[in-house]
Backbone:
């Protein structure tokens, strides 16, 4: 129903560009200079800052040693190598790892190698997931441009280097505990951003942006997730290439996020416009200021559908028989659907307040016992403030520790069904509904079909869309009434991942007609599978009614058969759909471009589809590596036409 994620921090970012410009030796020098300013230790904070800076220097020098170990191994292998071509490659690897990331790279190859060693170090420090390459096409591009211009590199050679990097991305794994494994099946949840605008507000796409799309299209990786920052200044050539990449890879590569709404949101939070224009995607499709914040755990995680189920049972969880909520009345005695909605609101307020308290306490405890000196060294302001990222040293604390609440579509559809069928048309009584839910519709399939026929979100139907709009905004405001441990409002992050699969396992039958313990609705604003029957335009119209200025993430999944996008006409129709949504301040959209027959065949013959990429919710994964019931849920999603 509600929880605090007390796991290692996820979705981390560091200042790769800083290391590319001055090397780790330059960052060590920066920390030493800050140490010299601590001439006296008059306060406890001075002592803490001293120990923090010492740890930073140790961690940075350790990463330099880590790179040198790679160099030594490469030289040992070169000494034994009989193939002269491979021998030269190994000697070159050794030379590069001796130079970077200690020093600023001198070439595109060295820049990519420096980035990779930094990413590995970041991962090893936390043994977690979500390392974020960020705006890779921006900070690596100067090295690409210089080498191309000076004739030291060809586009094909650059593509080969990037191809090798993407293969290394696919090798990254972690040991996950049960909850995280369920939520993030088959993925490390990395995110790499291309496109968007620069700090001056001009189109930031470059040759490297195009090359990344080409590499992803050929390799067909499932990670890192590729995010296109969409704005009206993107060229048609780039947009078409992005859709073609999605068509060939199939599963949400790339996803699309609206520059306009993100920059607006960041500026409204007090982020200067130039910095807001430099945002990156992190985790699923959450926005972040590069190396100035990141997700260091989430203090509030709310399963709205479970809260609704608790409200229908007067605060008791029917699955366990335990009282998890407060008493809000027996719904059998309610005389209006508004009373049902009010019971849900009271339960939600109780849950948010409870887990927010736990989140603040947990953040303090974890900050005292789980320091990240390497991550902190390359985060804006941490060296200056003398504080670890886990202790609030980063610049934008309002972008840290957001609340994650999901299940809004399930709640809105449930309320619409109760409003229409119980209180308006009186086709069923509240008692009949609750009995059917308690039995998971055993022997009551007719009643379930009536519930399935009730108005559903995603059909441009104001009857249910108005309810969804209110649920969306009210729950956001309720979360924002709480603060994180640093006094910043908890901003709702309605993340994707496979949350709907994990949360569904704890949620009983719902008035939507959904069976007990099956996946909830995917994404944050995606329609319930199979219920969006009026086409993608209706879905866009419904989603456009929501206020995306109150959230930091909101995933919308759509599915199309590849045949619709084989021509430029079909591609332009899809681009028109994206533009229409974003012109109306939509936040995010992504596409599974795959047909049902292919997915069913992949279930029967997984050995033939090892490289089939599918979009789960906020991430992509190889279809055959997913749990069978999650595969079934993806197959059940509506296949749209343009």
Residues:
């Amino acid at each position: 129903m509600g929880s605090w994620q007390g796991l290692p921090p996820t979705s981390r970012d560091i200042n790769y560009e800083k290391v590319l410009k001055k090397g780790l030796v330059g960052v060590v020098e920066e920390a030493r200079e800050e140490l010299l300013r601590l001439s006296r230790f008059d306060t406890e904070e001075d002592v803490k800052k001293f120990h923090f800076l010492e740890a930073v220097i140790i961690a940075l020098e350790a990463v330099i040693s880590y790179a040198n170990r790679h160099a030594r191994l490469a030289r040992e292998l070169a000494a034994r190598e009989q193939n002269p071509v491979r021998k030269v490659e190994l000697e070159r690897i050794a030379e590069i790892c001796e130079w970077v990331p200690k020093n600023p790279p001198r070439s595109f190859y060295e820049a990519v190698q420096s980035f990779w060693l930094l990413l590995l170090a970041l991962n090893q420090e936390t043994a977690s997931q979500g390392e974020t390459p960020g705006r890779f096409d921006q900070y690596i591009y100067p090295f690409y441009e210089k080498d191309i211009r000076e004739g030291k590199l060809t586009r094909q050679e650059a593509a080969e280097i990037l191809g090798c990097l993407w293969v290394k991305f696919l090798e990254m794994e972690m040991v996950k505990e049960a909850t995280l494994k369920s939520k993030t099946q088959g993925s490390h949840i990395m995110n790499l951003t291309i496109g968007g605008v620069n700090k001056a507000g001009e189109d930031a796409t470059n040759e490297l942006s195009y090359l990344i799309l080409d590499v992803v299209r050929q390799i067909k990786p499932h990670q890192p997730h590729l995010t296109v920052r969409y704005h009206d200044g993107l060229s048609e050539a780039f947009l078409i290439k992005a859709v073609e990449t999605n068509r060939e890879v199939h599963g949400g590569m790339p996803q699309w996020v609206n520059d306009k709404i993100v920059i607006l949101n960041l500026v409204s939070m007090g982020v200067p416009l130039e910095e807001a224009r430099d945002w990156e995607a992190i985790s699923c499709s959450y926005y972040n200021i590069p190396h100035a914040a990141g997700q260091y755990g989430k203090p509030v995680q709310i399963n709205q559908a479970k809260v609704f189920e608790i409200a229908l049972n007067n605060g008791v969880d029917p699955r366990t028989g335990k009282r998890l909520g407060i008493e809000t009345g027996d719904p059998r005695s309610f005389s209006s659907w508004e009373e049902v909605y009010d019971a849900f609101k009271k339960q939600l307020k109780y849950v948010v307040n409870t887990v927010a308290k736990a989140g603040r306490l947990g953040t303090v405890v974890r900050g005292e016992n789980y320091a990240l000196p390497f991550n902190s060294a390359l985060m804006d302001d941490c060296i200056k403030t003398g504080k670890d990222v886990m202790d609030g040293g980063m610049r934008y604390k309002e972008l840290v520790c957001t609340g994650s609440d999901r299940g809004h579509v399930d709640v809105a559809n449930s309320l619409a069904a109760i409003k229409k069928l119980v209180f308006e048309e009186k086709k069923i009584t509240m008692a009949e509904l609750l009995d059917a839910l308690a039995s998971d519709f055993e022997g009551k399939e007719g009643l379930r079909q009536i519930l399935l026929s009730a108005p559903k979100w995603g059909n441009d139907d104001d009857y249910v869309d108005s309810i969804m709009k209110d649920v969306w905004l009210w729950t956001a405001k309720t979360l924002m009434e709480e603060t994180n441990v640093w006094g910043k409002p908890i901003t709702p992050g309605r993340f994707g991942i496979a949350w709907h699969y994990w949360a569904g396992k704890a949620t009983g039958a719902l008035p939507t007609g959904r069976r007990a313990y099956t996946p909830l609705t995917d994404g944050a604003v995606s329609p319930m599978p199979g219920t969006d029957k009026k086409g993608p335009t209706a879905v866009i119209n419904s989603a456009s009614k929501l206020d995306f200025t109150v959230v930091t993430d909101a995933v919308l999944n759509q599915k199309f058969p590849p045949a619709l996008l084989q021509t430029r006409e079909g591609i332009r129709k899809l681009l028109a759909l994206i533009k229409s949504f974003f012109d109306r301040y939509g936040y995010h959209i992504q596409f599974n471009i795959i047909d049902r027959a292919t997915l069913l065949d992949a279930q029967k013959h997984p050995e033939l589809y090892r490289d089939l990429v599918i979009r789960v919710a906020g991430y992509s994964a190889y279809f055959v590596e997913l749990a069978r019931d999650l595969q079934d849920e993806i197959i059940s999603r509506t296949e749209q036409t343009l």
